[in-house]
Amino acid sequence: MNIHLRLDPLRLAFLAAACLFGATAPALAAGPPLRVLLFSGQNNHDWKTTTPKLRAILTGSGRFTVDVTEHPEQTTAETLARYDVIVSDWNAWGDAPVKEWPPATRTAFLDFIRGGKGYVSIHAGSSSFYDWPEYQQIGGLFWNLGPTSHGPPHEFPVEFVGDHPITRGLASFRTTDELWLKPGMHPAAQLVATGDGQPLAVTTALGRGRGFALLLGHSAEYMNTPGFQSLLLRGTEWAATGEVTLRGAGDARGLDADTVIRRVAAYRFGNDREALLALEQLVQAAAADAATRSALAAKLASALAAEASTDGKRALLDGLSLLGSAAEVPALARALTDAELLYHACQALARIPAPEAEAALITALRTTTGSARATVLQALASRRATSAVPAIARLVTDADPDVAAAALDALGTLGSPEATAALQTAENQIAPALRERWAAALLRCAGSLRAEGKTHEAATLFAALARPGRPASVREAAFPAYVGLAADAAVPDVLAALAGPDPILRRAALRALWSNRQPVLLKAAVDGLGVLSPEQQEAVLLLCGERGDASLLPAVTRAAASPQPEVRRAAVKTLGLIGNASAVDTLARLGDTGSDEDQKAVVEALARLRGSGVDAAIRNALEAAPPAGQRTLIRAVAAREDRTAAPNLLAVSRSPDPAVRTEALRTLGRLADTSACAPLVQRLSQATPDDRERLEGALVEIGRRDPAVVPLLAQALTGAPPVTAASLVGVLGALGGSPAFAAVRQQLPSDQPEVRLAAVRVLADWPDAEPLDDLAAVVETAGDARTRAIAARGLSRLAPQAPARAARAAEALAGALATTTDATERTHLLSAVVGIPCLASLKAVQAELSNPALTIATAAGLLGIGEVIYPWHPAEVKAALADLRRTGPLSPELAKRADALTARLSQPANFALGGLASSPDGIEKDGDAHGDQAAIDGNPDTYWDEQDHQPLYRLRVQLRQRSTLGCLRILGFSHQNYAPKDFEIRCDDRVVKTVTDAAYTNNWLTVAFPPVTCSVVELVITGAHGPSPAIRELEFYAEPPPKP
Amino acid sequence: MTRPTLRPSLTMNSLSRRRFLRQTTLGSATALSLPTLLPASVFGANAPSQRVAVGHIGVGGQGRGLMDGFLGLPQNQSVAVCDPIQERREAAAQRVEQHYAAAKGQDVYRGCRAYADFRELLARDDLDAVVIASPDHWHVPLALAAVRAGKDVYVEKPLGLSIEQGLALRAAVHLHGAVFQYGTQQRSFNSHCGFACELVRNGYLGELKAVHVVAPNGSTGGRAVPQPVPAGLDYDLWLGPAPVTPYTEDRVFGTGRWFIYDYAIGFIAGWGAHPLDVAHWGYPHIPVEYRGTGRIPTEGLFDTVVDWDVQGRYASGVEFTLKTGTDKTTFVGTDGWVAASRGGISAAPESLLERKLKPDDVRLLRDNHHYRDFLNGVRTRQTPVSDIDSAAQSDFMSHLGDIAVRTGRTIRWDPATETILGDTAAARMTRRAGRAPWAA
After folding, report:
1. Within 13 A of A864's CA, how many CA atoms are on the CB side?
2. Among A272, A467, A609, whose Cβ lies nearest the Cβ of B299?
3. Residue A937: which of A961, A976, A910 has the closest Cα?
4. Distant-in-sequence contacts of A743-751, Cβ < 8 A, 24+ apart
């Protein structure tokens, strides 16, 4: 806020006017912003939407800064010291979680008010602590159990009572809200506003403090009105300071019209438009009230006659265009003579309904020339000045073509019988270049006659305009209009025109078909389809579809055989729209032969056929059709979701044509139920590999829809041939879930290697860590290397999902490594084991160090494990590192990593590393932040951050493994800005430390707490330095580390 | 589709056949013994007789994009371009000619003329349709002139500078039976907007309770310092029906004209057109009541409403809101909601998104190409997917929201008479002046 701004009252007025248009307008500079503490967090209304709205309105004014607390009961004297006013959206109504404030809070609250600060309650912010007299006194209004009631929200008038700074200058308004009838009112409260006669707003006092209560604001949507916002803003300002500088909506009385007008008169393009906006506001406020309107209009008119800039006069004219009446017409008429004001003067005279305005424009037709005269003509047309026809008619032959054209257009717009007659009379005097304009104007007159019900006159005129010799643009419009009025009598004309020699009439006749709904017309066109051009045929067929007239079906069916692709496709499309079961055969035949595009059109048409028997007809056609047609029909079955077609689909899924088989099985997958499973399973053993894949795909699709499929397939496993069993295991794997898992698991000991392999494959790809133990057993016991390799891959993939069982996986792999000699398999096992960082894997890889065929991958794997687990196993990692160094010189890159790890081992370990961060507070991330994990990724360039100004933030870290912690360290976003300030540290959901007003040193904060062993650490942050508590790094230690 | 064959230059030389026929017809009122139209097969599948001769008015950013889209369609033959900015129109004409030269495998192709004045372009009677992508304040004056000259029109959004303009254009389109397509491309270029609307129309959301529309906020700023008019710009023509004001670059170049009240009402219409169009597509009605807040910047050149927050309701009681944010139209019903933006769709329950329409259900989706849908309409006279009636209604929603914000009052709209009820000042705001000879 710029405190150097001149406190010029006039400027304030203009700035305030800028606020009138909404809560977000910049506000006046009446000192530093007032600090609001908004009480929220519970009430018997929707505080989660009203609180943000209140906050937005308050901050949007620019007059206030707002902090929200959802725990007013925790408020202390120290907190309150930072604020000027409390706004309450909180109550203890009903079964609210917090029913009482601790004595310290009560005292702090009263001291705050009595010391000269303010308290505001809005609707649900009232009505708590009925046994606390001081609270009632400062609150003022409350729900009086018994007498008070309310109906549904509705519109009612808000009136002001007496003279109070909050309401001074405000115009009464109407609003929609919940209205409390007979609310309780403290005897000492002063009533300042009523809603439909009921107490609505009061002011109160306690000690040196001030209170304001407003019962409007039942929900956020009712807070959008300017009236509500003015009362909230001005009431809050008054409660905080005892004064009101903000101006409210409808506060135009507060703006001095003469001053505003003087400023407008001095306005020039490029200046700030505050004055123009203030004028617009004055005008809109005056528009609602007759007396103010005429007074302001008179002021604007006299200002127009006085000294003023052109830009200022234009603004005055715009104001008069909304407020003006006959009284201001002379001033406006004078403005017409100024070329620079002509546009705005014409707009005003066009908008003012008084006949005097019309007369002034007519007079101006004589005094103006050229484009000014044309602009006046347009204004007359815009105001539908029927009295101006004679004056306008004189100008249709004006030497200036722009004037003559504007006169013709104006007569066309007026469209009265007089205007029509004037145009007809002028026909032979119109300049050749304007003949199209003339005809277009007459066409509009004919349209007006039609609209007025003068059917005969209109039809005659349209017919005349459709005749040869008239401009094509008018003929093409007039002919269909004539047909529309002449009704069935025009049918022969249309048919003759459609197939006739006159290209304009041919096109016009097509328009006539579309724009006129007589069925007989379309019927005639369809009957004569054969003589029409392909383009016309296409159009007529599409029209049949749009009209949905089934009687045209035979003709459309014939057209579907047309050699012209566009005609054919239009017919197919239309068959889909108007056809029934009888169209299936025609469409099915087309599906046999057409191009891809034709087939697509046929499928769409089949999908849309209506009426009974369509599905049956498609099913019947399915088995007999040739392959191309079958594919089309299957797609139609799919599009229509005809589930009863499963048997037919099963039948055609045995087609010799692979494309048909594919289509049929895909559709079975989409449509069939469990009854199709048995026949599909039965075919698995004899199927080709491609077909087996299709069959499996169908079973998976069916199984995804119906959980009954899994038990069915599990049952089918018993006694199934090996090929079938392997397939079924794969299908069960794709379906997932516990029953499928159990079934697949049962196949692990199968004596059929292909079944066993399929089961291991499925378990290795299982989405969760469930099969970990089974896979470990496979690695330990399986006879063949391939199976072991797949199981090892599965272990490596799944182990990170179950840290507690990772050791078991690593041990199995280590055991296998110890007994395997095959080099390739050892490679597989090693790469699997390094993917599971734990003590067992460290030992296993460490053992490999003695292998003469030591590879870089092994060394890197060892380092990788050490880098992850060193906080928990420092001694073991140290020993492994020593072993590694003994193997000989390391590559530069590995040496660097080994050195770094050694260095880390000599420092306190950060147990946050390798953990999983989440932020379960429902707050949106801040735009540039890097997500929750960024807080514990060891990289200070990335950070965790969320939306500003939230009451409560949470950051939760699931540790890599259970650890004993005694210290936490935070690197904030920047020094004492955007960093957690007030927070709790919770270990396994138990509070171990509460931090208030955290003081950072070089952006670092170190907090020690009594040692605790836990798996989850959470920060619950209620206060931030700056708008939000961003964290670059969050670290956990057993004891305080040295200063960074 | 086969590649387009090009307009044969041997048979008709520079005169197209349509022009030839029209001129002959006009020339002799009684001589009707003209040759009938040749069957299309003479020319092959995409003979010129089946192609739509198109003129492009306004070939700046959006106009050029549209032109490129039309050029790619075999149904289209672009024959003219028009822009008051010399550089733009010449570059556009060159682009068209290069396109057809390349398509023909020739070095040179002549057949696209560049016009500064749209009236000359509209006077050509070999032109079937025009694509209008001018500054917003020109949309309706140009479209009216085109329709009255017998052309079909593709008109960019937003529709009119005032409600009166929308009414005038709608009346002219109906009177002339012109084919009209509105530049609300989400009706064709994705299927999810239409699908969302089909869910609403067919009752899959249960009883509709609310329609929430969000459109991106407008801009503030712009330099309000008079500058000399640059060479190659016909500024008076560019202003056209708008009042004469000092030239500044931000009026004409860049995006400033979208935020200046003389030429537009801001993004409440300019961007609002898209999600409001979806709103009207899904629920083809117009709210009868509007109230709201917003802000009119007082500094800089731009003076249209920003930060608008409008509430209203339909006659049915369905709630309506129009706010700023990322574009979206949300339909809320008793059985769920669906929200469509140009970028995607979401719904609750999510199963709504899997819903298949039944044969009896209302279908809204048409061609998946917005321009082709228009060109096919020009050929067959079928009304394209984004028709004038819905264009006018969605545009009126923008205007009524704007008027509610500017007046600070509750605005009541009577859909039967299409007038504002009980508020004379607001009613006067539905009409604006126009500078001759350009006004609608």
Report:
1. 16
2. A272
3. A910
4. A743/A710, A743/A713, A743/A714, A743/A717, A745/A771, A745/A774, A746/A717, A747/A717, A748/A774, A748/A778, A750/A725
% of chain B beyond a pLDDT of 70: 88
Residues B223 and B353 in one domain: yes
> How many C-beta atoms lie closer than 10 Å to residue A82's C-beta?
9
Compare CB distances from B177 to A321, A353, A515 and report the shortest one's residue. A515
Its sign, for the CA torsion A697, A702, A705, A706, is negative
A19 → chain B, closest CA residue: B295
Residues B70 and B181 in one domain: yes
> Helices A435-451 and A417-426, interaxial angle, to 10°?
150
What tens digit of pLDDT does each residue of A490-523 get? 899 999 999 899 999 999 999 999 999 888 999 9
Buried b vs exposed e over B363-398: b needs ≥16 C-beta within 10 Å? ebbbbebbbbbbbbbbbbbbbbbbbbebbbbbbbbb
- Pair (B154, B198) in one structural domain: no
Confidence band, pLDDT 50/70/90 cuts, at residue A63: confident
In 3D space, the residue among A252, A598, A845, A1038 whose CA is nearest the CA of residue B409 turns out to be A252
Across the interface, do B33 and A501 touch by the CB < 8 Å criterion? Answer: yes
Do B210 and B177 sit in the same domain of this protein?
no
Instruction: Verify that B353 and B334 share a domain, yes or no.
Output: yes
Do residues B401 and B259 both lie within one domain?
A: yes
In chain A, what residues touch B224 (CB-CB under 8 Å)?
Answer: 269-270
Q: What percent of chain A has pLDDT over 70?
A: 96
Give A511's contacts in chain B (Cβ within 8 Å).
177, 381
**What tokens does B402 get?**
């704007």
- In a domain, residue B382? The reply is no
| Residue linked to tokens 């129109």 | B89
Tokens 């003076």 identify what position?
B303
CATH (domain of B134): 3.40.50.720
ipTM above 0.90, yes or no: no
Choose among B64, B399, B365: nearest CA to B186.
B365
Residue B5 lies in a domain: no
Outline where DSSP puts E strands in B29-120. 52-57, 76-82, 113-115
Boundary of a domain, candidates B171, B186, B201? B186
Surface-to-core class of residue A628, CB atoms within 10 Å of its CB (0-12 exposed, 13-18 middle, 19+ buried): middle
A374's CB contacts (< 8 A; 6+ apart) are: A400, A402, A403, A405, A406, B436, B437
Shared domain for B317 and B241, answered yes or no, is yes
Mutate to test the interface with A, among B124, B126, B165, B296 (most CBs of A within 10 A): B296
CATH number at residue B241: 3.30.360.10
In chain B, the number of structural domains is: 2
Compute the CA torsion angle A328, A334, A339, A340 (nearest 10 deg). Answer: -50
Q: Does a cis peptide bond (omega within 30 degrees of 0) precede residue B228?
A: no
How far apart (Å, rounded) are the C-alpha atoms in residues B318 and B191? 25
Please tell me the predicted confidence (pLDDT) of residue A592.
72
Distance CA(B284)–CA(B278), nearest Å, equals 9
In a domain, B176, yes or no: yes
Q: Tokens standing for A784?
A: 């063949």
Last residue of a domain, one of B186, B202, B237: B186
Band the pLDDT of B24: cuts 50, 70, 90: very low
Q: What is the pTM of this model?
A: 0.71
B66 domain-assigned: yes
The CA-atom distances, in angstroms, between A520 and each of A238, A483, A514, A552, A896 are: 76, 12, 13, 11, 92
Please give the Cα distance from A199 to A400 (Å, whole number).
68
Which distant-in-sequence residues (6+ apart) come within 8 Å of A399 by Cβ? none
What is the residue range of B412's domain?
191-368+388-428
Residues B300 and B362 in one domain: yes
Judged by a CB distance cut-off of 8 A, whether residue B341 touches chain A is no
- Dist. CA B331–CA A68, nearest whole Å: 32
